[in-house]
Amino acid sequence: MVRIGILGGTFNPVHIGHLLAAQAVAEACALERVVLLPCHTPPHKACGGLAPAADRLAMVRLAAADNPALEAGAQEVERGGLSYAVDTLRDFRRQRPDAEPVFIIGTDQLRELHQWHCVEELLGLCAFAVVARPGEGPVGAAEIRLPAPWPERLLAATVRGRLCEVSSSEIRRRIAGGRAIRYLVPDAVAAYIARQGLYRRMEGAGN
To answer: For the whole model, what pTM was predicted?
Structure first.
């Protein structure tokens, strides 16, 4: 059975930190590939300054195009509405019964996982990989407000990522301020942003 990683997010826009995290998990967890899955509407964060879903998907496709270990996923964008992980995993398991999904989250999401929609079902639908950045403080089992054995199991699935101080919100601020984003995003993504005129005005916060 092949193992397929799923890295979801707003990807507003996708940047080099996302790609480094995906590559680190692919190598650490022996994944055949990682699907970068932009959401349609995020349920857990404010949507101010969110580029249209079609544009975010287009940028992810450009970012993944030259790496056979990465794949752009259109599932949540095509489904529309709020993008809940449990719905995505239900669909994935129906469509790919031959694959084991590995859902990739960060340590910040690990602390909030107990609040996710239908989290009990989600935990049974996939394996997890938790990306921790170098220098980031450890997450204690008591911070993961889920019943045993999940705190210990999730902490055991931690993958050490690379230190990369870049965020989508920083990129949007730089674009709005007329500053360069070279080396923060793939060149093809930077060209797409310029061509489409994305993020020229700041319209809210969020990563």
So the answer is: 0.93
Of the chain, the end-to-end C-alpha distance in Å amounts to: 34
Distances (CA, A) of 129 to 105, 115, 138, 178: 6, 18, 15, 36
Q: Let me know: does 59 contact 193? Beta carbons within 8 Å.
A: yes
CA distance 7 to 53: 16
Which structural domains are found in the chain, ordered by start? 2-164 (3.40.50.620)
Residue 179: burial class (beta carbons within 10 Å; 0-12, 13-18, 19+): exposed
Question: pLDDT per residue over 17-61, tens digit each?
Answer: 999 999 999 999 999 999 999 999 998 766 568 999 999 999 999
Place of tokens 């995003």: 185
Give the integer Cα–Cα distance in Å for 194 and 190: 6
Q: Reduced to 3 states, what is the DSSP secondary structure of residue 31?
A: coil
Helix and strand counts by DSSP (H, E) for the chain: 9, 6
Q: Report how far residue 95's alpha carbon sits from residue 77's, in angstroms, rounded to the nearest whole number.
A: 16
Residues in CB range of 179: below 8 A, 6 or more apart: none
Q: Residue 34 in contact with residue 25, Cβ under 8 Å?
A: yes
Secondary structure class of 188 (helix, strand, coil): helix
Give the integer Cα–Cα distance in Å for 157 and 127: 9
